[in-house]
Amino acid sequence: MTARRSRRRSAAYAAMALGLAGSLALTGCNSHSSKKSKKSSSSSSKSKKRKIIGGGAAAAGAGAGAGAASRSTTYCTTGTQGDYKFITRTDPSHVILKFHNSKSRSCYLYNSPMLYFGTAKQPLGYYEGAPSFGKTQRIEVPARGDAYASIPTTTAADKGTKQSVVKIGFMNASEPTQRGLSANIHLSQYAGLPSVGKTAKVSDWYLSDKLAEIKTNTGR
């Protein structure tokens, strides 16, 4: 009877040990699988974050580039008759040329205007000298802004006679050649035709009439 009980106890202990071992093994497996799942989920989340961040930066860069391109400054175009005005001033005698940038973005003007009065084949001379690679004047005319040049007419030869027609050319950066030429501009629209002779010379472009006058000693 004692021997039989002993065998039963041994069998029971063996079964309990086997069950416990199996349970531990299953717990370890589940734990390992859970860690793997969490790791995989975390990796996937990081990957998604990287993609979102990278995509956003690229899009922002592309947008900024497009915006910069759309705001880029270009050469001014000669425009139409309504973009110009000639103003005669006295004491000392001179004529102010005003150009209006009617565009919605800024533009560059180089050196001085090239003025062909009447039937002239050659433009007026340049008060501040012809441009070169070592001497280039450039201004940026704001959108809807103005630029000015002064023409001293303090001598009889410079004053010449009243002019009714002119063509205006815009100059290239470092040489006295034109990159654009307006159609005939009829000056009869102004109160008093400007008097400009063949020996007169015109200043470079400036952003204010006062500065153009200072450069040609025609300011008051």
From TrEMBL:
Residues 28-49 are annotated as: Disordered. This is DUF4232 domain-containing protein. It comes from Streptomyces inhibens. The lineage of its organism: Bacteria, Bacillati, Actinomycetota, Actinomycetes, Kitasatosporales.
